[in-house]
Amino acid sequence: MSRTPCRLALPLLASLALGACGEEAVPAELRVAGGDAARGRIAIAEHGCGACHVIPGIEGAVAWVGPPLMEWARRSYVGGRLPNAPQNLVAFLLDPQSVSPGSAMPALPLQQGEALDIAAYLYTLGQAPHVPAGQPLAPGEAGTQPEPRIRPRLDRPEGRPLGQ
Ligand code: HEC
Predict the structure, then answer these.
(1) For the domain 4-122, what is the CATH code?
(2) Is the pLDDT score of 30 beyond 70?
(3) Which atom of ligand 1 is nearest the CA belonging to 80?
(4) Cβ neighbours of 92 (radius 10 Å)
């Protein structure tokens, strides 16, 4: 099954789509024991993570204060410090400063269960089990992309170098 339809379906059929094609596609080492991605999606919306992050599948999560969380399963590090693994992500979410001292990510009032659920959701983003974390996808590996993965900024005339 191609992953693209799952992603496209997220905004429309979030909980159904997650049940149908989200979590079971997550590779074993990125599965979060006790975490539920559908609940995590709701917790992400409730805690306003989208005020600072781009998060696919979360309505209104289009801010660039922090790094975009798209393709999270392919990321090598959490907070630039620890290998990207479920227990490290959960530790970061519960207490960003403990993982990444001086981090601009605020400590949010998350319950342990909510952090597990949020981590489970983030690992449904961009699973590419056959490609090592951090490696670019070869042509065709990402499936059919209906639009560029990172859209050009609208406030900058296309083609003009940054800073001009
Ligand atoms: C006030 C803005 C703000 C809010 C709200 C916020 N974050 Fe962050 N977040 C940041 C910043 C800034 C960073 C980068 C700092 C770092 O990586 O240490 C970050 C980093 C992260 C990272 C690590 C990114 C990486 O590339 O390693 C994750 C994961 C994350 N945030 C998830 C969340 C989740 C989930 C929520 C909601 C529960 C949330 N953030 C709420 C600002 C925010």
Answers:
(1) 2.60.40.420
(2) yes
(3) 27
(4) 22
What does the domain layout of the chain look like in residue ranges?
4-122
Model confidence, pTM: 0.74
Separation of alpha carbons 97 and 139, rounded Å = 38
117: pLDDT strictly greater than 70:
yes
pLDDT (tens digit per residue) in 126-148: 875 445 555 555 665 555 444 44
Ligand 1: residues with CB < 6 A are: 44, 47-49, 51-53, 65-67, 69, 75, 77-80, 93, 96, 100, 103-106, 108, 118
How far is Cα of residue 102 from the mean position of the Cα atoms in its chain? 22
Residue nearest to atom 9 of ligand 1 (CA): 105
Q: Cα–Cα distance between 21 and 57 in angstroms, integer? A: 14
Q: Are 90 and 116 in contact (CB under 8 A)?
A: yes
